[in-house]
Design brief:
8-stranded antiparallel sheet, Hypothetical Protein Tm1070, Chain: A, 26% helix, 17 helices, alpha+beta, Glycosyltransferase, disordered N terminus, 38 strands, elongated
């Protein structure tokens, strides 16, 4: 095959007759020897096909020219195209499915193993039947060998000779390898290469240091030992692999009502490699590097790199997993184990070969939106940085940087918010990008990234601080766990972004420091690109906090939660966002994504209609006719409003416009919520306004006032200021519907704390009516009322107003009957009656 090398390694091929031909400039001894090894005559039986005389080739099972691998169904072919030129491709069609053919580039010299996934719906009879092969570009005659051929590789698809061909043998540190190649001694070349990788000290890799307590260190050591024994806990499941031998295709969740494809994907991320690194550092136990060697050999054999269909359930080669492995966990393992004698020579070379395969695989994937492609290119750049011996590493680094800019720049707002609008996925992207920058800085590649790109990444690193809650956590939104403020302001991030004054300040908050007289961030702000309005009484730990969602859906991890709000009264977790839970098939997964689990309204038991994000609209933008949100801040209050105009149901079935208005009182943290719903028809509709609170207890008065929280320790009061047909408070209910649950998504660094949902509280305000209707609700923190021994009463004086008595406090609220009438609040502020304009922008 004709293959391209840099000037120091010239190009050579072997023609069908075995004669050497060289492109300009002339052949060198190194490339001549490599070509001899790569294009040696086949030892076993082969089938030769010339596309020039036979346009299509049919390979059947009887021909023994392809083999099947176990579940999920992989077909492998071994081909050799000595005369293929750049652009030469095979087009491979599996079976009679009618699917378009799989294009395969003939880019690897020598015998090339091609792995193709058989779509599950075609995997009915255990094999694809007939494989049809055609060609495009200049390929020349092509040889096909069966599984019994001596060249058929086990583990990584590269042979030793192919790996040598992928190296820049003119590098001084590879002089011993080059000398062995010139002598024609491939065994010695292999030894020299192993000696080089065992002994090298550059480039270097440093994983982010973890600040751990003694208990956390003991827990991590125990977790490493548990994984070493073959026991894994992930995604709310636990499984033990016999004798510690991982079955990479086994899904232990299969057949359960909590089945999830995430298990097989997650186990192939090899996160346990970092735990084993710690296990070796903490104990010196050689079982860890030995086990990692067995892992590499077993995984590369079970999970060969596919030519296509790489994202099917059961694959270890989604670009996400490939990027995660090479972006952090494999570098961790390499740094810890590559020089250890218990890490075998075969495993070391298999890992180097697979690093090359990963980079080659990732570099061929076009940039796209989403965390998948950010992490993929993080892995690509890290691999290229850590392995400058690969002759393609300089171009891979350039490709990774270009792809990262194409992924990150257009999908990050000026506020630093990543378009998926999930704090967990946002932080995932931030942390992986910081690893890339750190690795590049450490190894002389910092100039790969422009100052403007670094500045954008610094703003991204600060975004989670902006949405953080008074309890020094980060609000869980969309598919997200509840991160700690400390976890998003680590010493590592502060080191990578030394110009940020927000990260060290927030890290001090997380450690218990006071916010100080001049915080670097305002207490309240509208993060307009992200669509989040954040309101605080202060940055103190006992402050009240509200986040109002007026933005787009937020990509594939978004929920059906337009106009949702999150409320922390007096610094405590109060009204929360359903966080999505584990990506499984339980009813809780669907419920936690639905409108039903959020602090907003469903109509006729229908969820909000929000179109799924697409390639053209990855963020799930609001409909074009959505009125602009309003955010206005004064000395005493913040007024905010947003709209949901997309309707309800799947089609959508029902056209109702929902306007939500918020008045947040800056001194007390009391919140007025106005929900106005305008249907397009005159029919009666059932409205269900829901509030989900982090407690299981509530007491209702006859007026519907819900005092949420345990006796003697109230959490908040929820007061309906408008008439209701009924009101309810439920906790831990599953039938006839799910009510009162907190669906937990694991977010701790050891990933073992995912679990079943825990009981919470759902307060519902129900009304059935026709025509426009308004719900007015007052949310009151416990510092603003006396729970017991006092009167709690609501009087609806006129339409559009109410008088409230709550624990010794008396308030008057008026919002009128016109959508533009000012909101009047009496008794709430020492400034007197507050008049709040409803459409005044900031």
């Amino acid at each position: 095959m004709k293959w391209t090398l840099p000037a120091c390694l010239l190009v050579a091929v072997v023609s069908g007759s075995g004669a050497l031909r060289a492109t300009e400039p002339p052949l060198t001894p190194v490339t001549a020897q490599l070509s001899t090894w790569l294009n040696a005559k086949a030892e076993g039986p082969v089938r030769v096909w010339d596309p020039g005389s036979e346009p299509t080739l049919a390979l059947t099972a009887e021909s023994d020219r392809w083999r099947l691998l176990p579940k999920p169904g992989l077909v492998q072919l071994l081909v050799h195209a000595a005369d293929a030129e750049a652009g030469g491709r095979l087009q491979i069609t599996l079976g009679k499915s009618g699917r378009p053919p799989t294009p395969v580039s003939l880019r690897i010299p020598g015998w090339q193993r091609i792995t193709i996934a058989v779509p599950l719906e075609d995997w009915k009879d255990g094999d694809p039947g007939v494989i049809q092969v055609s060609a495009s570009g200049k390929t020349g005659p092509i040889q096909f060998a069966g599984p019994s051929h001596p060249a058929w590789p086990v583990g990584p698809g590269l042979s030793d000779a192919q790996l040598l061909a992928m190296l820049d043998l003119e590098r001084p540190e590879l002089s011993g390898v080059r000398a062995a190649v010139l002598r024609g001694d491939i065994t010695e070349a292999r030894r020299e290469l192993i000696r080089h990788f065992r002994g090298r000290t550059q480039p270097t890799w440093q994983s982010p240091p973890r600040e751990m307590t003694l208990n956390e260190k003991e827990d991590l050591a125990a977790l490493a030992a548990m994984n070493l024994a073959g026991e894994f806990a992930m995604l709310g499941h636990r499984h033990t692999y016999p004798e510690g031998a991982i079955d990479w295709h086994l899904d232990p969740t299969e057949g359960t009502n909590a089945q999830t494809n995430e298990w097989v994907w997650s186990i192939s991320r090899h996160e346990f490699a970092s735990r084993w690194k710690y296990g070796l550092e903490a104990s010196g136990d050689a079982r860890y590097p030995a086990a990692w060697g067995r892992t590499i050999l077993g995984w590369t054999e079970a999970m060969p790199v596919p030519a296509s269909n790489w994202s099917w359930p059961g694959s270890g080669w989604r670009v996400l997993e490939a990027g995660i492995r090479t972006g952090e966990f494999w570098p961790d393992a390499w740094a810890a184990f590559h020089a250890h004698p218990a890490f075998s020579d075969d495993a070391l070379l298999a890992m180097v070969k697979s690093f090359w395969e990963h980079a080659d695989f990732l570099a061929a994937k076009p940039p796209f939106t989403g965390n998948f492609y950010v992490l993929a290119n993080c892995g690509l750049h890290t691999t290229a940085t850590l392995f400058p011996e690969f002759r393609d590493s300089p171009s891979w680094r350039k490709t990774a940087v270009l792809n990262l800019e194409k992924c990150v720049v257009p999908n990050t707002g000026s506020d630093g918010g990543w378009f998926e609008a999930s704090p967990s996925y946002h932080q995932w992207v931030v942390d992986k990008l910081a690893l890339v920058l750190s690795c590049a800085e450490r190894n002389g590649c910092a100039s790969d990234f422009s100052p403007s790109f670094r500045s954008l990444l610094s703003r991204m690193a600060e975004w989670n601080v902006r949405v953080s809650t008074p309890d020094r956590r980060v609000t869980a939104l969309n598919d997200s766990s509840r991160l700690t403020l400390a976890s998003v302001t680590t010493p590592f991030l502060r080191e990578v972004y030394p110009g940020s004054n927000i990260l060290p300040w927030a890290a001090a908050l997380a450690s218990g420091a006071a916010p100080g007289p001049n915080p670097p961030l305002p207490a309240s702000e509208y993060l307009e690109p992200s669509g989040y309005m954040v309101m605080r009484t202060s940055w103190e730990k006992d402050a009240s906090y509200l986040l109002f969602d007026v933005g787009p859906m937020g990509g594939g991890h978004g929920h059906f939660d337009a106009l949702n709000l999150v409320y922390s009264p007096d610094g405590r977790r109060g009204l929360f966002d359903g966080t999505g839970g584990t990506y499984d098939k339980t009813p809780f997964r669907w419920w936690s994504m639905s409108t039903l689990s959020h602090n907003t309204i469903t109509i006729d038991r229908l969820n909000q209609f929000r179109p799924k994000p697409t390639k053209d609209d990855p963020i799930g933008a609001l409909p074009a006719d959505t009125p602009a949100p309003v955010y206005s801040e004064s000395l005493a209050y913040i007024y905010a409003s947003g709209w949901h105009v997309g309707g309800y149901g799947r089609e959508p079935q029902l056209s109702v416009r929902h306007r939500r208005e918020i008045v947040f009182l800056k001194e007390t943290g009391i919140v007025l919520v106005l929900d106005t719903l305008t249907p397009a028809d005159d029919l009666p509709h059932a409205y269900d306004l829901r509030w989900h609170a982090a407690t299981t207890q509530a007491k209702h008065t006859a007026d519907g006032v819900a005092l949420c929280g345990e006796e003697g320790s109230p959490l908040l009061a929820i007061l309906p200021l408008t008439g209701l047909d009924s009101f309810h408070a439920d906790s831990g209910v599953t039938k006839p519907e799910i009510l009162g649950w907190d669906v937990i998504k694991g977010g701790t660094w050891d990933k073992t704390k995912s679990g079943p949902p825990v009981p919470a509280l759902t307060v519902r305000h129900l009304r059935k009516t026709s025509g426009p209707t308004t719900f007015a609700t007052l949310l009151v923190p416990p510092s603003q009322f006396i729970e017991s021994g006092a009167e709690h009463r609501i009087t609806h004086t006129t339409t559009g107003s109410a008088s409230v008595t709550l624990g010794g406090k008396r308030w008057e609220v008026s919002w009128g009957t016109s959508p533009n009438a000012p909101i009047m609040l009496s008794g709430f502020s020492p400034l007197g009656t507050l008049e709040v304009p409803r459409n005044k922008t900031r």
